[in-house]
Amino acid sequence: YLIIDSRAPLGAFGEQTRMRLEWTRRAAAASGGRATPRPEVHARVRPGSLLRGLVAAGPGPRAACRAQTDSVDDVDVDEADVVLEMPHEVEERYLKLLKRQEGKLKDLQRKHSKKRSTHRVMKISSGYLKGSPVLSPRDKDVRPMMGKVRSAVFSMLLSRIGGGSEFPSECRWLDLFAGTGSVGIEALSRGCGTCHFVELDQWTANEVLIKNIDGLGVQDDCSVHVESVFDFLTKFSYKSEVMGGSFDFVSVCPPYNDMDFDELVRSLEASKVVSDRSFLIFEYPKEVGQSLATTLGPLTRLVNRTYGRTTVAIYGPDL
């Protein structure tokens, strides 16, 4: 997690911070009154010290600020005469970094300043849990798969594996970007033996996903991974055997905003969550359709249907 503490001063540097800086002496040389440049040196910033002054965002080519130092090798420098000068290109990069961090801080503050709550407007559509209500957040931070889309997807999957009304009990399901867990719980309701849920947001995992699992009594068949989907896929690549190997079904319902769909597809292809006998359900906005090819790893696209803004692709073995 990227933790941004708004209480920390922007000019503070942590212990063991090292900076390579160009030093100049602002005092005029005694001989001709010209500024004599000091040789380039390395300086260790005293732990917890502050740059004296803020980086200037004005029109000047450089921003000067004083610093306290523990030692400067090979140069006899009077601390009072030392001025720390930041190169213009470094200053620009630093200011851009601060701007990005301030933007992320505002997003986090806006997201966590409001009190989040849940309601029950979703239901399991079929199986032994048919009609059971499912908790979902009232806000827009979690976007569950719509009920009619979920019903259509499961009907298509069941027709592909034999046309029955239930999945075989030995099937294993992986629900990525789980959110409410409605897709994975629907799979359990329709006969799947086990389901793994991956959800990054701690509040959603604790207050929505786990409460849905416990409330419907399916906790013995579930595993919840509170982490990034990308981290989960990377780890699974080298511990797939410990977790039981590839999954029979994988559902991918990522958030539409701030998602790199190209990177997500690459991560799925590089991981071992699917085999050449798996089925993968990928929900995505139609605007990013170019990110999904007709194949994904060893699987071939079997279905690609649009429901409003939402498009669902199903990949599976090319039988």
Keywords:
26% helix; alpha+beta; 319 residues; eight-stranded mixed β-sheet
Structure description:
The chain is an alpha+beta fold and 319 residues long. Helix content is 26%, strand content 27%. The chain is built from six helices and 16 strands. The strands form three sheets. An eight-stranded mixed β-sheet has the order 11-10-9-12-13-16-15-14. Strands 1, 2, 3, 4, 5 and 6 form a six-stranded antiparallel β-sheet that branches.
Mean pLDDT: 75
Q: What structural class do helix, strand and pairing data support?
A: alpha+beta
Q: Number of helical runs?
A: 6
Rg, nearest Å: 28 Å
Give a quick account of the main beta sheet: strands, pairing sense, barrel closure: 8 strands, mixed
The helical percent reads: 25-40%
Topology:
Layout lengths: L17 E11 L6 E3 L3 E5 L17 E3 L3 E4 L9 E5 L1 H26 L4 E6 L9 E5 L9 H14 L11 E5 L5 H8 L4 E5 L3 H14 L6 E4 L3 H11 L9 E4 L8 H10 L8 E7 L9 E2 L2 E9 L2 E7 L3
Parallel strand pairs: 9-10, 9-12, 10-11, 12-13
Antiparallel strand pairs: 1-2, 1-3, 1-6, 3-5, 4-6, 7-8, 13-16, 14-15, 15-16
Helix pairs in contact: 5-6
Summarize the structure.
With 319 residues, this protein is α+β, with helices and mostly antiparallel strands. It has helices at 88-113, 147-160, 182-189, 202-215, 229-239, 261-270; strands at 18-28, 35-37, 41-45, 63-65, 69-72, 82-86, 118-123, 133-137, 172-176, 194-198, 222-225, 249-252, 279-285, 295-296, 299-307, 310-316.
